[in-house]
Amino acid sequence: MKKNQSMKLLVTVLILMMSLAGCSTNALLDYKNATQKTDDITRGKMSLSIKIENSFNTQGLSEETISNLKNFEKIEMSMISSFDNDQTKSVNDVYLNQGGMGLDTMIYSVEDFAYIKLPMINGYIKIDLNGLEMTPSIDTSGTESLIKRITKEWTELLETENVVKGEKSIMPTADGEVKVTIFTVSPTEDQLRLFLKKTISILRSEKDALEKFLQLANTDDNLDFDTLINGVEVEIEEMEKITFNTVAFIDIDGYIVKESIEIYFENYDPKPGQVSKRTVVISQENWDNEMEQNIVIPDISSDDLLDMNEAEGLFNNFR
Question: Radius of gyration over alpha carbons of the chain, in Å?
Fold first, then answer.
């Protein structure tokens, strides 16, 4: 579905803005250092939650179309992980939900392999993590220019007065109150729209490089680069309201212990089938940083393993 593809790209671009926030400016130096230190954690625990809520204008639509749209009203993914990179082990409790259909599973990783538990049949899928690497024939050199140009635009936005703010505060935790620095990013709607327009222009100018990635991910033979970018641009223009807010909590040790991104879109006069409201909330927490982890991997025999072809049908609802 083209609308779903454009939504995914739009969310990806907005999430990318946060990964570009660690730029070499004086105002963002503390956050940059905290981001790097948090990324370098070798063992600990973390939780990640992504929630997307869509409201559609269903006026005049058939029951079948309305039923299909309901599958995209709420999309949720959450994960709680305990990891130790030195031991190359992790335990991940993963939950997926789309259209009211949920999947709760465990993923265990040991060295170069991951084991995905399928609770509905009490079996596992074994995945060679080395086999998930990008195809060597894909040239990624063209994306360097893209990242640099978007980084430049985002940095200029962050350097604008009152976009970035930091303040000392106290955050309650299970172990008591801790001192933190709260880092916020709150661009105005005009600033955000200008950045998105510049980003779309940059994406168009880097068409040759990005088309290679689209060919890999494209499951719709009728969807090309221009169609996707034009769809994103139209969707942004039709949204009368767009907001973006980020809050990050940095503890006294210099780690980001909690971070959230909230993105909100609203179309006051949507056509039938179009989104009237969309909310995206991404939250992450980190704790037990660099503390010893008790990671228990279950004994998995060859009899417990399921062939990938047999398991393929179990995931049709989450494609």
Answer: 21
- Containing 304, the helix (H) or strand (E) segment is none
The residue count of the chain comes to 319
Q: How many Cα atoms within 13 Å fall on the side-chain side of residue 166? A: 14
* Encoded tokens for 150: 């978007």
For the record, the structure tokens of 264 come out as 């909100």
CB distance 1 to 7 below 8 Å: no
pLDDT one-digit tens code per residue, 139-181: 555 567 778 888 888 878 877 777 777 888 888 877 678 889 8
Checking DSSP bridges between strand 275-287 and strand 176-185, what pairing results, if any? Answer: unpaired
Contact indicator for 255, 38 with CB cutoff of 8 Å: yes
* Amino acid in the structure at residue 209: A
Answer whether 198's CB lies under 8 Å from 153's CB: yes
List, for residues 17-40, the tens digit of each pLDDT value. Answer: 554 444 434 446 777 788 889 999
Angle between helix axes 2-19 and 189-205 (nearest 10 degrees) is 110
pTM: 0.77
Which of the 8 DSSP states describes residue 19? H
String of DSSP letters for 126-165 = EEEGGGGSPPTTS--TTHHHHHHHHHHHHHHHHTSTTTEE
Using a 10 angstrom Cβ sphere, with 0-12 exposed, 13-18 middle and 19 or more buried, the burial of residue 62 is exposed
